[in-house]
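Summary for the funding panel

The consortium committed to producing paired sequence-structure records for every protein in the target list. Below we show the first two records in order, beginning with the earlier of the two.
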Amino acid sequence: MSSFIRYRPEIDGLRALSVLAVFIFHIDSGMLEGGFLGVDVFFVISGFLITSIILRSVEQGRFTLGGFWIRRIKRLYPALFANLFFVVIAGNYVLMNPERSDLFGQSIAAVFSFSNIFLYLTTGNYWSNSSESIALLHTWSLSLEEQFYIVFPLLVLLLYKLSRKAILPFFIVLAFVSFGVSIYQTPLDQSAAFYLLPARMWELLVGSVVAMVGPATLVRILGSRLASLASLGGLCLIVASFCVISYNDYFPGYRAAIPCLGAALVLAFGTADPVGKAILGIAPVNYIGRISYSLYLWHWPIIVFSRFLSPDPNVVWVVLLTFASAALSYHFVETPFRTGTRRHLVVVGVAPLFLAGFALPLALKTSSPGVPDHLREFEDHYVIDTEFEIDATESILESGEGVGSHTHEGEVDILIVGDSHAEALVRAIYQYAEENALSLENLAVPGVSITDDGPKPNRSYAGELNEMRLQRLSSIKARVGILAEAWVWDVGRENFDVVLSNYIKLLSQNCDEVHVLSQVPMVDLPKTHEKALNKYALALSRSGQDLSFEGSSHISEINETVRGRVEKLGLPNVGFIDIYPYLKTEEGGVLVVHDEGVLYSDYYHVNDRGAERLLNELLESRFEAALSE
């Protein structure tokens, strides 16, 4: 077993590299597509350091669980509480609902170290549309580490009493098991694999295993020259992963092994690498490494707040404010409390009560204090809700049928097929059907395109569901069929022409009349506000600009491609409806706000009001004509 290495400059350099990669990625993911992997590198470093500390204390016979956890609390929680106070109080005036009203629950989850679980249950996906507006999203990784700090020392103590020789083999096996869970779970439930400890523990254990074997032992085994090359190669692996691996890939899975292996090589052999030590040991880099925890805490809330305050945040000011906040936190919160007395510990213990005292009254407010009256609708559940009540996913997978007011004889008046763009129309059409005593079946499923033929992240059932959907379409009869999709994601796929033709032919055979809808206009948001339409509207207003929204020009071309495919089939009972013009302004922008209110829930979905507009302007007359025959 190794003893604890008191200080290695290259470790601070590695911390700096990790946190800067994450920072750059969050400012602009296009600048460093794999920058989010800095968290994975940090996990390996944390596992290495915490194992070194525990093993040294255990071998010296002075390790206690209580003492260990108190040191972890003094190390992590003072800076976290200071950060939470700022985010919760300032966020109530900067953010808008639902992000503002969610702050209380998220802060409580961060305090009690289950933020990763809470975010998994409430957001479902780190990469989802709403996640980039969650000011405490970054606390997931802190909670995961803290959960590791609870489990790991218990296992070490138990094994140390049973068999010291079993410690290293046990954690090597456990690391491989956790890695296997990550590979297995990523395509089935990417969000669980990303957020939760079972699929992430191996990353911390990689660092733990390096600490258990000991860098000195590893360098001696490999030889100083090869060790130096291995460390430099590890550094190259880390940098390459930041540049090459994309967050659109199936992640974590096996891809996370690349930066983790790189970090392990640097930790194992860095003492023998003069080049790596020279690079990572530069004084300013080391300082960033020392303040890396505070830098990580402050960077994300400041980025999120800046995007609610301005449609074009000044990156220089964001960077300066982040580093200034991190430095103040390190020198006046982290350091004093880490080396402080029992009084400091009492303050840490009382802090959650003060936090709750401030946060709860603010959370109980129904509207955001900092949002102008004319933008209140952008935080209305009716406007921004994208969790559809009439979701056919479970019904199709369980029974092979959709949901709605369909008859038992397999015949319906209105049939709806497609992805979330079709489902966005369902509630308005469902209400129309009820008012006119019509039957309806919904086979639209969010996140599952008609072209999906296999599992996809967070939609492991996509291929199976499409097969069952086709079977249902083969057996059902309908008077009117509606097919709507986000064609922008479909048109470029190799199987698009064949799949679209097969769907339309099947609908044509089983429906008296079929309408293929164009895609709605997509709002062209700046990268800083990507996927957050309400946040962009608030930022525009705060900067004194008009609420105007430009559209993505290529959507018209995509729609024309789909129109061409539909018309080429020449089926007499199939038509293409271009809904695009009905959601455009006179100036050519996207009609996000109309006389009757907000029409979009996000940057490329209409809300219920938008769906009602399309129903009234385009679909109702067609329904009446077809259903009266």
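The next record, for a separate protein in the list, is shown here:
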Amino acid sequence: MEIQVLGGLAARTNGITLRLGTPKQQAVLGMLAVHAGRLITTPQLVDELWPDDPPRSAVANLRTYAASLRRTFRSAGAAEGSLVREGDGYRLSIDKVSVDVVRVVQGHAEARELIRAGRPEKAVEVLTRALRSWHHPLLAGVRVGPLLSARREAVAQERLAAIELLTELHIKSGRSDLALLLLRPEAGEQPVRERLQALLMRALVETDDLAGARAVYDETRRALEDQLGVTPGAELEQLYRSIMEGRRAQSPLALSRDGLLAAPAAGGRTAGAAAWLPRSITDFVGRTGVIGALLRDIDRSRSSAPVVRVIDGMAGCGKTTLAVHLARLLLPQYPDAQLFIDLRGHGGATPLSPAVALLTLLRQLGVPAGRIPTDLEGRIELWRRELSRGRVIIILDNAADSQQIIPLMPTEVGSVVLVTTRRKLFMPEAGPPESLAVLTPAEAVELLAVTAGRERVAAEPAAAAEVVRFCGHLPLAIRLAGARLAHRGAWRVADLARQLSSGRGAIDHLAVEDRTVAGAFAASYQPLSRKTKCTFRMIALHPGSDFSLPMAAALADLPLDETSDSLDELLDRHLLEEVGDGRFRLHDLMRRYASELSQQVDPPSVRTEAADRLLDLCVRAALVVAETLEPRPASLQLLPGLPPRPDLIEELGPLGVEWLERERLNLTMMVRFAESAGRDEYAWRLARAIWRFCYMRSYFDDILTTHQFGLAAAERSGDRAAVALMQNYLASAYVRTSNYPMAQRLVESAIAAYTALGDAQNLARFRGNLSAIYWLTGEIGAAIRLSRALVEEEKREPALDLTLILPNLGIALCVAGRYQESLEVHRLHLWLSRVRADDFHRLNALAHLGTVKIRLGQFESAVRLLRASLNLRRRTGHRYGEPEVRADLGAALRGLGQLREARHEHETALELARDYGERHAECVALNELGRTLEAEGGAESALRAHQQALKLATRIDHRFEQGRALAGIAELVAATHSDEARRHWLRSLAIFERMGVPERFEVQRRLDQFPTRR
């Protein structure tokens, strides 16, 4: 397997590029790949994925991501065990050099060793090869947390050290031209890295560019004083003195006050350069990747054409600050003039016309007013002529549209134009725009620290993280929050965090004097059309992380084409983000602004109707999928009446399990949203609609969350039938996570409700679920009696669904040792599932038949059935019950003497059970693993497995597995600790006799054979 982490994240095996899943799943792989071969603990991964506020389901979600990555690796033919779970963590078990960052770092180390060995030419070769693929940051495009952020910075610093080493070798060997190619883009990005600047100065001196070397010194000195408050070190000072002592006459191009070509001032200094850049921010934070990319791009392009680069983004993201910072880094290359103009494209003022803008820019260049033509064409001609005479930086800030700035474009080589705008501009000559994102969490906290005071922020890291999280990592919002703290010395950071999270109106706290976040957003909002303004306010009601076009149309109550136009307008003004594949999202702070605006503008009835349209669409779409997974039960939960927007349901795309997978987190949040908004019917119906999908994919935490909210909504509505439904399906998650007492209470309450309501079909289903709880808790006789009664009732009432009754009856019969009866029941279940073309019931029936075959000693038949069940699960995406099936498959393989394969299946079952949080399945896997390890001769490992099974089975009160664990321990300690073995066998016998299972006979036989110590 080959893994790329430099730049974006990618993985390939056997020539196949793997699909790496969700952003969180990619972060997991990135974390493991960067630390390949090392154990990364679950707490470390949770802190990385959710550094601010881990959800309750964090560990369960992490297990899901790991299990999904394993399946991805396995499907591509990667070696088994590439991703292993060890203790409380995971390890990527691959050759370290298959990760690109490891190779390049090793290349740097090898080059240092070659230099020590006196082989500099070979070191140059190794370093050049290593740096060839070392252009981009670690895990670019992947959302990283604190650990990977630190690793990213460490790798970036090592890359700079490698570049410094290679350029020094080039300079020493007389190849300073090659050194300059490497140094120029990096030196512009690292103005206070003295070693890098010293090497650049040395390379410039070696190429006879003394003026360039002096300019590097001057800029470095200013950067050190401005950013760090220090003077240059000894190496830079010595280089500068050497240059001054041996300086040569230079003739750089300069612009005079009247715009004519002028001779240079004494000493080669530019006379009368026009410097109109705003004061640079001394606390500039982050953006190193963006700045580096822009500097390299400008350096590549400047010799062939005038350079024009557009920086766009939402209000407050730091576009102007970045442009000014970038311009100052470019000063050594563009010393003749630095111009700046606010084009007023957004805000209350009227945007500047091109003619007025040209008048201002020409006056900044020093052109006398009398020489400036009155017509636009004349001004354009003069502007372009003046620019052709020097190397000039121009910042066109706050552009309204491309028509405003096209007349301001230079035509000759020698100028760089930086355009900032909140809109997406169409300018082919400018190349792709640099769309500025928000800061990373680490950068955001750093910005708060330099604004509010480092000691205050460092003293309350959790509160600081909460403040920047509320600010959405938006620079303007963070600066305003920091300024608010700086002006209130008595406040703690936690006080501001509390204010910001206080609810409605909290965004108003992000204000200092006349600067506000709301005001910045309003400047982008006000020019919108009335229809688009309404769409903007309505989409803020969507509770999920992103949404599709049909969902936006439902909220806005507009046709699809009009909704699309409105979203395009919002995208154009950076009020909305497109996240790919027809999906959109609002920045968190923008969502809050839109929501508060809606509360001020829209009547409550309008907001309620919009929410109802969205919920109606999602419930009906989810039910379409549910009917394909469980046709008869799901059809009973359909919403009454016709859908108000059938066109939108069709536009959602193919409605299948993949749609539910994509929308899973959004739908989970919608249940909560519906319950909190008092839309009770939507809350419980949506929870019910996604139940089967969550159950078959083992998303039991999602079932617990959605059905708890659904139950609260149903209870508030007074709908007794809905309450019983929520209780029953909530109980299913409690069963799979081994909370049997809670599950039994809920099911019994649901049964009482439907007995009173006289609903025979649901009543039978709920009673069938109760029988499953009975056999899980050791009440085998009660389970059989209840299931038999239900079958008899079905003969009198054919409307009942036998596929919901037969599996539990067959399992209970098997546990009780009534194998032939169990086979008959499971065969009938299999036949019904085939008749109905129901894959879910078919894969379960196959697995249950395999279990009975193991009890009968028919191991080859069992293997065929169990593998058929697993293949069907793999093909249909059903994860439900997979740990138990694999544990049984291992038992069958053990029966055939294939111990190595058996142990593999048991270990896989154990890993899956832990990933899914299915503790009863974990008990089964541990006991089976213990038996297989014993057969292999690993007595100590087998004992540990049974002891773990006993501890867990006792905790969850799984009596059957308690008995098996006790018997397994007794067998293993019998030879050395006879009293202990006897005690364990007696406890096991008591459990098995109480349950009435055939295992009691084997335990009694061992006790009879085992001598009593006298």
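Regarding this second record: The mean pLDDT is 84. Residues 441-522 form one domain.
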